[in-house]
Design brief:
By secondary structure, the protein is an alpha/beta fold. It folds into three domains: 4-278, Aldolase class I (TIM Barrel); 295-383, no CATH class; 391-505, Alpha-isopropylmalate synthase LeuA, regulatory domain (Double Stranded RNA Binding Domain), CATH 3.30.160.270. Helix content is 41%, strand content 20%. It has 17 helices and 18 strands. The strands form five sheets. An eight-stranded parallel β-barrel has the order 2-3-4-5-6-7-8-9, surrounded by six helices. Strands 13-14-15 form a three-stranded antiparallel beta sheet. α14 crosses α15. The longest helix is centred in the first third of the chain and has 17 residues, at 54-70. Residues 298-307 have low confidence and may be disordered.
Length: 506
């Protein structure tokens, strides 16, 4: 099958902005528009609805000014209405040159929303298109609710297309406005229309209410659609529109007969920028652009990747400017850890690797997220143990209440004998230390003085990061440091203290 070029129109700045709670500023719209056309290299962008607000007008004006200077003005489109030329005048003032005229693509919408006959609607559309041509504005036409029109009022749809075939229209756009059709219907409807009107340029506009947006877009292309409408991150009203990233990946990997100009290398960059501007977070498992979609978690998968890339597919992260990662947690095997150690330039012998693996599994069982940046801390913590464990903190209760001094009850085993004590302190850790001192006085051991207390987390970590506490101790004989590692600062200090207790007992 010979390849054919199709157009990709991005409607993030119009349909995508209809996502609940999203409103881009004029400067944000201009930045996104530049990225879409210059970097992502989509063919066209739909940037706004006419007449919406003064802010929208200023945003369109800034984009059209830039587009005119840089040769993109014919790729910038505005949604307009059949409104006796009000939208067209708005466009002229804003500097736009292409209108996407919203019309009724189903008899249901025509009858109940406009309360007009088809001949009345067509007459007004003809007048609008004629005025646009007179003013130097190019027209594309949306058949709103087209998918339901094909299901329930096909005669009306074909009457409409017969009329449009006589008009100076560049593109006819077929939206599944409510995201209700199946892939089989997408193919059948587009195929039927394209066969009857082979010389009309048809765009397909999918919504994602049943999570079928990508599949419907795929089938529409197979049926002969000449263009697709997509949004960054699948933004849009209700469940959103067909998403740009996964649709582009599907076309490139499964549809060799389709040629597109989109630069998939920058998909992730553009997606993250739109995420930041919109405040709508990308789900971590979102295909292509989600945080975790190129992360191997199971140890067997990392092992397979070491053995001829057994768990690789054509969907390689490098295509999208990303890298493969190997998660650390309770499912991690040695292969995952080795992959992360390699990235850090670290090496461990088999025995030490086993210890580190076990520690990571323990942290994973506590639902602790372990990152690559945590590894040096975990290694330091694990390999710091060079003594026989004669002291063990069995349990403790830390209490902190308003108006009362913090208190601790602690149970500790020393050489197989269990002691329990409680005490107050200026803080939870101070109360813990006071209880420990009482216990060790009973066994005739004086604890070293705490002379320094430092806490650190890995660079770039979040609030749930591992916390390393380093305590410096001084006895009459020596000064030494111990480390503790946990997601809780007080607990990490207790673990550092437990190491100190074992050092002085051994």
């Amino acid at each position: 099958m010979a390849s054919r070029k199709i157009e990709i129109m991005d409607t993030t700045l119009r349909d995508g902005e209809q996502t609940s709670g999203v409103s881009f500023s004029a400067s944000e719209k201009l930045t996104i528009a530049k990225l879409l056309l210059e970097e992502l290299k989509v063919d066209r962008i739909e940037i706004a609805s006419a007449r919406v607000s003064e802010g929208e007008f200023q945003a369109v004006k800034s984009i059209t000014s830039w587009a005119s200077t840089n040769g993109y003005i014919d790729a910038v489109e505005v949604l307009t209405f059949v409104d006796n030329g009000v939208s067209i005048n708005w466009m002229i003032e804003a500097g736009a040159k292409v209108q996407n005229l919203l019309t009724k693509g189903s008899l249901n919408h025509l009858t109940h929303q406009l309360k007009k006959t088809s001949s009345q609607h067509f007459k007004e559309i003809s007048e609008t298109i004629s005025l646009a041509k007179e003013k130097g504005i190019q027209t594309n036409v949306y058949l709103e609710d087209w998918s339901n029109g094909m299901r329930n009022s096909k005669e009306y749809v074909y009457e409409f297309l017969e009329f449009l075939n006589t008009q100076p229209v560049k593109r006819v756009m077929l939206p599944d406005t409510l995201g209700v059709i199946t892939p089989e219907e997408s193919f059948a409807f587009v195929s039927e229309i394209k066969t009857k009107y082979p010389n009309i340029h048809f765009d397909f506009h999918a919504h994602n209410d049943y999570d079928l947006g990508v599949a419907n877009a795929m089938e529409a292309l197979k049926a002969g659609a000449d263009g697709l409408h997509l949004t960054i991150n699948g933004m849009g009203e209700r469940a959103g529109n067909a998403p740009m990233a996964s649709t582009i990946a599907v076309i490139n990997d499964f549809m060799p007969f389709i040629e597109i100009g989109v630069n998939e290398k920058v998909l992730y960059t553009v997606s993250k920028l739109v995420e930041n501007f919109s405040g709508v977070m990308i789900p971590s498992n979102k295909p292509v652009i989600g945080a975790n979609v190129f992360t191997q978690t199971a140890g067997i998968h990392a092992d397979g990747d070491n053995k001829k890339n057994l768990y690789f597919s054509d969907l390689l992260p490098e295509r999208f400017g990303r890298t493969r990662k190997y998660a650390l947690g309770k499912s991690s095997g040695k292969a995952n850890i080795q992959k992360n150690l390699q990235e850090l330039g670290l090496q461990l012998n088999d025995e030490d690797l086993k210890k580190v693996t076990q520690r990571i599994i323990e942290l994973g069982d506590k639902k602790q997220v372990v990152t690559k940046e945590d590894l040096p801390y975990i290694i330091s913590d694990v390999l710091d143990v060079t003594y026989e464990e004669k002291v063990k903190v069995e349990s403790y209760v830390l209490t902190h209440a308003k108006g009362l001094k913090p208190s601790t009850t602690v149970s500790i085993t020393i050489n197989g004998k269990t002691f329990e004590e409680n005490s107050l302190g200026d803080g939870q850790f101070d109360a813990f230390m006071n209880a420990i001192r009482i216990i060790f006085r009973k066994v005739g051991t004086i604890l070293p003085d705490l002379i320094d207390y430092a806490v650190r987390i890995p660079p770039g970590s979040h609030s749930d990061a591992l916390c390393e506490t380093i305590i410096t101790w001084k006895s009459t004989e020596k000064e030494f440091k111990t480390r503790g590692l946990d997601s809780d600062q007080t607990v990490s200090a207790i673990k550092a203290t437990e190491k100190m207790l074992n050092i002085i007992i051994n």
